[in-house]
């Protein structure tokens, strides 16, 4: 009879050890899942940041290309082909701005839209404006562009979302 009670106790210990091992396995699995989720989130943020920085680079290049061509058109009295090219650059700026604005809050999206439409207006009227009026148009565009560039700086330093 002494062996019968010891067998039940050994069975209880074996069951308890199995439960402890299963609990530790479940805990390890939960930690691994948490680690994996954080890793995926980090990769997604890095991809988003890289795309945002590439678009920032593109939008800056488009703005300055637009500015150069608008100044040339203003100084020389633009032909229709250069006006069409300016409109194309304004729309390209708008497309890139729309993409970048999707990562920003409402006021930033409004800034991107306002500058896109302002560049469009410059493309339409800038060639015929006197130099002083043309400079006023671009002073406003430069001010708005400065705010957009600040958004790009924020993205470059990792404060995108």
Fold and architecture overview:
The protein has 161 residues and is mainly alpha-helical. The protein has a domain at 49-156: Up-down Bundle (Four Helix Bundle (Hemerythrin (Met), subunit A)). The chain contains 4 helices and no strands. Helix 1 packs antiparallel against helix 4, helix 2 (80-101) packs antiparallel against helix 3 (106-125) and helix 3 (106-125) runs antiparallel to helix 4. The longest helix has 75 residues, at 2-76. It is rod-shaped and about 105 Å long. The model has no long low-confidence stretch (mean pLDDT 84).
Which secondary structure elements does this structure contain, and how are they paired or packed?
Layout: H1 2-76, H2 80-101, H3 106-125, H4 131-156
Major sheet summary line: none
User: What CATH architecture of the domain at 49-156 do you see?
Assistant: Up-down Bundle
Basic shape:
rod-shaped
**Share in β-strands:** under 5%
Number of strands: 0
Uncertain stretches: none
**Number of helical segments with 4 or more residues:** 4
From the alpha carbons, calculate the radius of gyration and give it in angstroms.
31 Å
Derived from helix and strand composition plus strand pairing, the structural class reads: mainly alpha
């Amino acid at each position: 009879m002494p062996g019968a009670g010891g067998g039940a106790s050994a069975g209880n210990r074996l069951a308890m050890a199995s439960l402890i091992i299963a609990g530790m396995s479940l805990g390890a699995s939960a930690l691994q899942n948490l680690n994996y989720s954080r890793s995926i989130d980090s990769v997604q943020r890095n991809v988003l940041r890289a795309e945002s920085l590439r678009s920032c680079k593109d939008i800056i290049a488009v703005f300055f290309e637009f500015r150069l061509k608008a100044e040339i058109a203003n100084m020389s009295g633009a032909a229709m082909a250069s006006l069409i090219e300016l409109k194309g650059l304004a729309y390209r700026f708008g497309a890139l701005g729309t993409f970048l604005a999707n990562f920003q809050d409402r006021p930033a999206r409004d800034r991107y839209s306002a500058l896109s439409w302002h560049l469009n207006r410059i493309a339409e009227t800038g060639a015929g404006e006197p130099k002083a009026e043309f400079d006023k148009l671009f002073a406003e565009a430069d001010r708005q562009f400065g705010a957009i560039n600040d958004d790009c700086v924020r993205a470059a330093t990792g404060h995108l979302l």
